Amino acid sequence: QVQLVESGGGLVQPGGSLRLSCAASGLSLDYYAIGWFRQAPGKEREGVSCISNSGGTTEYADSVKGRFTISSDKAKNTVYLQMNSLKPEDTAVYYCKGERPFDLPYWGQGTQVTVSP
Known about the structure:
Elements: E1 3-7, E2 10-12, E3 18-25, E4 33-39, E5 46-51, E6 58-60, E7 68-73, E8 78-83, E9 92-99, E10 106-107, E11 111-115
Parallel strand pairs: 2-11
Antiparallel strand pairs: 1-3, 3-8, 4-5, 4-9, 5-6, 7-8, 9-10, 9-11
């Protein structure tokens, strides 16, 4: 059974940092790309960052470039999203998604990130 479990969310002040984790079971990061998405209240879900199955390719939304860093630890089958210089507009539920060609994607349950004074 495939599971993606996000953790690491919480309440942080503007300018602060959080590190989100996406722990995968039932699938291997050697074969799945992992993406981070977020959804703020009243808004559509948007892509934040992704990392290829090789770990050699990463992409970021313009809104988080230079502040967020995605990485993977294949020994732990976990992908991380280091978020620095957080802004109130980063407040959202953050989800990770695992996908590979010709297969249905898998989503985690989400973790809440709130950036507020």
